[in-house]
Amino acid sequence: xxxxxxxxxxxxxxxxxxxxxxxxxxxxxxxxxxxxxxxxxxxxxxxxxxxxxxxxxxxxxxxxxxxxxxxxxxxxxxxxxxxxxxxxxxx
Amino acid sequence: xxxxxxxxxxxxxxxxxxxxxxxxxxxxxxxxxxxxxxxxxxxxxxxxxxxxxxxxxxxxxxxxxxxxxxxxxxxxxxxxxxxxxxxxxxxxxxxxxxxxxxxxxxxxxxxx
Amino acid sequence: xxxxxxxxxxxxxxxxxxxxxxxxxxxxxxxxxxxxxxxxxxxxxxxxxxxxxxxxxxxxxxxxxxxxxxxxxxxxxxxxxxxxxxxxxxxxxxxxxxxxxxxxxxxxxxxxxxxxxxxxxxxxxxxxxxxxxxxxxxxxxxxxxxxxxxxxxxxxxxxxxxxxxxxxxxxxxxxxxxxxxxxxxxxxxxxxxxxxxxxxxxxxxxxxxxxxxxxxxxxxxxxxxxxxxxxxxxxxxxxxxxxxxxxxxxxxxxxxxxxxxxxxxxxxxxxxxxxxxxxxxxxxxxxxxxxxxxxxxxxxxxxxxxxxxxxxxxxxxxxxxxxxxxxxxxxxxxxxxxxxxxxxxxxxxxxxxxxxxxxxxxxxxxxxxxxxxxxxxxxxxxxxxxxxxxxxxxxxxx
Lengths: 91, 112, 398
Ligand SMILES: Cc1cc2nc3c(=O)[nH]c(=O)nc-3n(C[C@H](O)[C@H](O)[C@H](O)COP(=O)(O)OP(=O)(O)OC[C@H]3O[C@@H](n4cnc5c(N)ncnc54)[C@H](O)[C@@H]3O)c2cc1C
Ligand code: FES
What we know:
The structure holds three protein chains of three kinds.
Chain A: E1 5-7, E2 12-13, H1 14-24, H2 28-35, H3 48-56
Helix pairs in contact in A: 1-2, 2-3
Chain B: E1 19-24, E2 27-32, H1 37-43, E3 50-51, E4 58-59, E5 72-75, E6 78-82, E7 93-96
Chain C: E1 2-7, H1 11-22, E2 27-30, E3 44-46, E4 52-54, H2 55-68, E5 72-74, E6 79-85, E7 88-93, E8 96-105, E9 109-111, E10 124-126, H3 127-137, E11 144-148, H4 152-163, E12 167-173, H5 186-195, H6 201-207, H7 215-224, E13 230-232, E14 235-247, E15 254-260, E16 266-275, E17 278-281, E18 285-287, H8 290-294, E19 299-302, E20 307-310, E21 323-325, H9 335-352, H10 359-375, H11 384-394
Parallel strand pairs in C: 1-2, 1-8, 2-5, 8-21, 10-17, 11-12, 11-17, 12-14
Antiparallel strand pairs in C: 3-4, 6-7, 7-8, 9-18, 13-14, 14-15, 15-16, 19-20
The structure holds flavin-adenine dinucleotide and FE2/S2 (inorganic) cluster.
Residues 61-64, 66-71, 82, 84 of chain B line the site of FE2/S2 (inorganic) cluster.
Protein name (chain B): Sarcosine oxidase subunit alpha
Keywords (chain B): Oxidoreductase
GO molecular function, one term (chain B): iron-sulfur cluster binding
């Protein structure tokens, strides 16, 4: 059977993610940095929930009360074409 | 097969549109005005929009609304254009992303 | 400088622009899609009274008002950043930047996929992709396909595919793995299915609904659920079949299917292959809140609302001054609710910028949201009402 890919952009499999999560007992952020899952062109829009789910799978206590999204979003959230970085071009 | 839906039991019939021509990977194709690049290609039975940069696996549209970035193509030399969000235009030159050479990976071998 | 910039031309953003402009505000809308309407455009389902909810017509109604109020919509414009600079909001887009006093984020929802081996093949798409192809762009996603994932959205869209002449060979469950959770468990799926039995009254109501009062009853229903599935509008709804793998070389050619027991476990895996040329994956929806996150909103996780939502109150205010949210970014609900939420946001923004005599209208709009929420034909989660109530009671945005 072909592998189960979780992050399509970087082609990271469920197996790799689970192994890494188990081996390093890591947070979703660390899991992302170690495997590159969620770091591709789409900015993790498609797989961030799954990465979080894998990272927290071992914990019984899910800490939802932190008031922040576990995998931080950073601008730009869409690729910026060259030449756009400038002053205000419109009113 | 990806067929056009001309008639529909509830929605209005598709008003057949103006034909326009464009090219995809050097092949001249035609589509309707109002098609996105993605639907223009689907109407020509082309589903593969690019190949994954590292593994070379074929990719087509996934979300069709701009979220997943799977449909990136190069349009008139601008790379990274989402085919599902971009209307096709007369004489547009579209090319699909290819697997990139990976000189540093796998001991430098470069095959598909 | 604009009074308010509205991000997203879906039902929430459009209706917010309308109510704000009606109270004298100078607003503009940006949207990265090539036409306005958001996810409303593709919607097509039958209400219990037999009337069709036609998203294209509903969008046109909103656009008529937008036009008569001379509101500019900038389509094909992607917002990549949103910051407050010197007490003004700056919306950064690939077509230039805009300054405004207030910003409404109405970016809607995104689909959360359930991955399946082989799902990167061309011809595999999200269920929403198939909806847009079929109802908006008028091209079939393929000739014959399956829908993986049984939920209110995939149920409605399977019907839409069929109306457009596409052969839906079946609706199946996703393979049982960590990421498919209860979506792979026949019992859980069946009980959620019965909540929207009004979408297919003739079949589901009669077969199942009267039984599903308790846990035991639910087990009984799944026990009696025909192993080969049953037809809903002629589409085999197979709660005891799971999609193991999507097969194909350069595109989808088929799907490998296995039997599961009532708990969704694979029984010594007798498999067979079905020939299909497309596959839709329906994993559910979650709020698309990335811009709210970079603009500094706090978040709360609510299953009933689809995941992480920016903390906000029933007036659509966030804790960040001058920043508002409306529509599916606040929780997954139907377009009618999104429209009413947009109306509230537009009114509340107008009030904050000095419009007077507006409280009565805000109260009316607040009531409209509640009544539309209670009457929704498509309700994405059974606890949406109580979840909203507790969010608005406990979370202080000021
Ligand atoms: C694929 C899909 C299918 C759905 N089908 C149904 C259905 O059949 N029935 C039903 O009742 N509900 C359906 N829904 C739920 C739907 O979200 C609501 O019905 C309703 O459309 C929500 O309205 P909204 O205005 O909040 O968001 P939307 O209608 O989603 O509009 C948001 C808009 O914001 C734009 N946008 C997002 N990010 C950016 C950015 N960074 N820059 C610029 N523009 C941006 C998008 O292009 C979009 O046009 C569906 C949702 C999805 C995602
Ligand atoms: S198909 Fe997902 S961004 Fe175009």
